[in-house]
Amino acid sequence: MTPCRVVVGVTGASGAGISLRIVERLAEMKSVEIHLVLSQSARRTVLHEEGAQAMGRMLSLASVNHAVDDIGAAIASGSFPTKGMIVAPCSMRTLTAIATGFSDNLLTRAADVHLKERRKLVLMTRETPLHLIHLRNMCTVTEAGAIVMPPVPAFYNRPQRVFDIVDQLAARAIDQLGIAPAPQAPIWQPHMEKAR
Ligand SMILES: Cc1cc2nc3c(=O)[nH]c(=O)nc-3n(C[C@H](O)[C@H](O)[C@H](O)COP(=O)(O)O)c2cc1C
Fold this sequence. Notes:
This protein is of the alpha/beta class. It has helices spanning 16-28, 40-49, 52-61, 92-99, 106-116, 132-143, 162-177, and strands at 4-10, 32-38, 64-66, 84-90, 121-125, 147-148.
């Protein structure tokens, strides 16, 4: 049987903690094979925002760590079956590369493969404010089949800590792939509104 493979791409946008939590959650789902690829800039932002220990943890939880310049890696080919790819966080540079089909490294190539194979591609695009080119690129990738999912926190679940926000974002991104037997993120229940 083909393993349940998920590609996680991490870029140099702010929000490295989200990618760490996505990898942690996927690692908890024992049957998932995690293919991790970090851009050069991601290595810098992960270290800056989360530290060396978190970086080590993320790399150690992955089933396969791919070098971003290894364009001959398995995930560079559509013949390698996967359940989908999450780019978290997704920089405007990587968004632009994906929107234009400019597969200049393994991360953007893997994203391109997911689009051409009509597989799930979730882009947690992170920048603010957005100019017209950012918005147009988001439209373009949406038209090509990607799911644009900026890391916008939900507050209806009354998060108490930054971790709660990060965890909910990670869970919602994984839910987009439809690989878990049940949704990872808490489901809104109307009675929650009356709880306080
Ligand atoms: C601390 C830090 C935070 C950054 N945050 C963002 C961001 O939120 N969004 C973004 O598009 N770029 C951000 N950048 C800039 C990107 O890292 C830069 O454009 C880089 O070329 C992206 O390359 P990549 O897409 O290959 O990772 C940030 C850079 C640094 C150093």
